[in-house]
User: Fold this.
Amino acid sequence: MEDFISGVKNKLKNNNAAAAAAQIKQYLKEPRKIPLYIAITGESSSGKSTFINAFRGIGDEDDGAAPTDVAESSKDPIPYFHPDYPNVSLWDLPGIGTPKYPADKYLRSVPFKKYDFYIIVSADHLTENDVKLAKEIQRMMKKFYFVHSKTDNDINVGKRKKDFTAEGTLSKIRKNCVEGLQKQGIECPQVFLVSSFEPGLYDFPLLRKTLEKELDVQRDALLLDMPKINQEIIRKKKEAFQSKIKYYSTLSAGVAGVPLPGLSTAVDISMMVIVVREYVAEFGLDKPSLEKLAATTGVSYTDLQSVIKSELVKAQVTADLIMKLLLSLASTAALMAAEEATRWVPVVGLVASMGLSFSTTSKALNYFLNEIAEDAQRVLEKALGGMTN
Assistant:
C-alpha cells in the first residue's frame, strides 16, 4: 500500500493528476489488487512462523512454508503470500530481543516502518517488548493486532483446575491482554486468542475475516488520505513558488527605479502574466490538464470547472485580466496609486516607489498563488468524489 501511495504522490508532484487518478481508479475497481504488507513481529520463539503458516492454511512441512527451525539471530524479513490473495504478503520479521536484534536497537535494525499494519505475536503473557512494539506502531499512527498464539496451552493448563471453563479461561486471558496494553497507553487494542496448531478454534476464524476486510479498510483509507496527501503536495509547491516571489518583487522594484512613465506597471503586468500562467499549469488547472483529468475520472470537464473560483483559472490569463484583478484588490490598488504619486517626488520619490512596487508585486503574487492552490485542492476532491459515486 505504501508503494502504491508513493506512486500516486510522485504523479501528483509531477503535475500529472490524471495519471494519479487513473491509478486510483484502477484500484477502486479491483480492491483485491491493492497491495497489503502485514508485518508479523514479536519476541523470538513466540510462534511467528507457525502462525504465518497456519494463517495461509499450510503445514510447517509443506512446500513454501515459513521455516520454523531458523535461528532468529540470522533471520531477515521474509515475505509470504496468501494463497487466495496474492496481493497480501505476510512479512516474517526477526524476533525482538535476540543478540542480533536487541530491543533497544530493533526498530533501527529492522525496516519497521515500511508495512501497512502489524500483528504482534505473543506466546503467552504480555511482555515489555510487546509493549515497546505496540507503542512504536501507535506512534506511527498505524494499526496492529495483538495475537496470543498458544491459547491451547493455556486451555490445557486450565483444565487442571476444579472450576475450569473454557469461556472463563479465554475471558481472563483476553482481559489481561487488553488491560495490560491499555495501562501502557495503547488505545483500543484488538486482541485475538488463537492456536496455530488448531486454526479452527478460538479467534482464528475471526482473525481471518478481519484481515480479509482490511482490504476494504485500505481502500477507504486511500480515499480519505488522497485529499490530505494532495494538500501536503500543494503546500510544498506553494512554498517553492513563494520562495521565488521575492525575486520577482526585486525585479519589479528595480524597474520602478527607472524614471519613465508607465514602464513599471507595464513590466509588472507582463511578468505577472507569465508567472500566473506557470502557477495554473503547475497545479494542473490549465485546460489540457483538466480535460485529461475529466476523461480519466469520468467527472465531466464542466463539473470540474464548477468548483473553480479564481478568475485566473476560469479565463485566459491576460494583461487586462491581471490589471482588472489588481485594481479590484484594495491593498494592491492603493499601493499602485501610491507608487505613481510618489514617483515624481524629488530626491526620495524613486526610492519610495521602488519599495511600493516591491510590496505590490509581492502581495499580488501571494494572493494569486493562494487562490490557484485552493482551486487545485477543490478540483482533485471533486474528481475523487465523482470516482466513488
Summary: The first strand starts at residue 36 and ends at 42. The mean pLDDT is 77.
